[in-house]
Design brief:
With about 80 residues, this protein is an alpha+beta fold. It has a domain at about 20-80. Helices cover about 30% and strands about 30% of the residues. It has three helices and three strands; from the N terminus they run αβααββ. The chain has a three-stranded antiparallel beta sheet with strand order 1-3-2, with helices on one face. It is globular, with a radius of gyration of 15 Å.
Length: about 80
């Protein structure tokens, strides 16, 4: 049985990064609970987090946010300048 072709996680990311000036931010909300609550889950949130973490033009971190119903997270990525 053939394996399904892996999904391209975020095809628009390449286009967005070309248009994004160095030093500018990409913010993504709701990025923490999925990874923490079920480490084996496969989701768009985890694919996005992996994509920004691995991208050489970005420096990224997740900021935990405490809410009334628990916790959440905001991923903050900044595009590196030409010197890295």
């Amino acid at each position: 049985m053939a394996q399904p072709e892996p999904r391209r996680p975020f095809p628009g990311m390449r286009v967005a990064l070309v248009a994004l000036n160095c030093g500018k931010l990409i913010l993504a909300d709701n990025t923490l609970p999925d990874a923490v609550l079920d480490p084996t889950a496969d989701s768009d949130t985890k694919r996005y987090s992996a994509a920004v973490a691995a991208h050489p033009a970005l420096v990224s971190t997740i900021v935990p946010v405490l809410r009334r119903r628990g916790f959440d997270g905001l991923t903050v990525s900044v595009k590196r300048g030409p010197g890295g």
